[in-house]
Design goal:
Strand order of the largest sheet: 1-2
Structural class: alpha+beta
Number of strands: 6
Radius of gyration: 16 Å
CATH superfamily: P-loop containing nucleotide triphosphate hydrolases
Number of domains: 1
Distance between the termini: 21 Å
CATH class: Alpha Beta
CATH topology: Rossmann fold
CATH architecture: 3-Layer(aba) Sandwich
Largest sheet: 2 strands, antiparallel
Order of helices and strands: HEEEHEEE
Shape: elongated
Length: about 100
């Protein structure tokens, strides 16, 4: 994880698609890397609190909320997350709870 990572970078986002035949435009949700069975999240304390919250929501609730819609995560869902407890400069500490 990096300091410039946004919540939508891990959860996914809506992209605008245009049908070539009809010219009709619509939004389609493109799933982010959190939609997997095993996720390795390295140095999660380097990413901003909003991005941490998006990951923690997925871990705690087993679902992702994006664009006002909720998407379930398929079980089994496992996250391996690391943080460097020694080097704290330029990090966003995680809540202890």
């Amino acid at each position: 994880f990096t300091p410039d990572l946004m919540p939508s970078d891990i959860t996914g986002t809506d992209v605008l698609e245009e049908d070539a035949a009809t010219g009709e435009r619509r939004f389609r949700f493109v799933r982010g890397p959190v939609f997997t069975n095993v996720l390795l999240a390295d140095e999660i304390n380097r990413t901003p609190p909003k991005t941490q919250a998006a990951l923690l929501q997925a871990m705690a609730e087993g679902r992702v909320t994006a664009g006002g819609k909720t998407y379930p995560l398929e079980p089994p869902y496992l996250v391996f997350a690391t943080q460097n407890p020694i080097e704290q400069e330029g990090t966003y500490p995680l809540p202890e709870a």
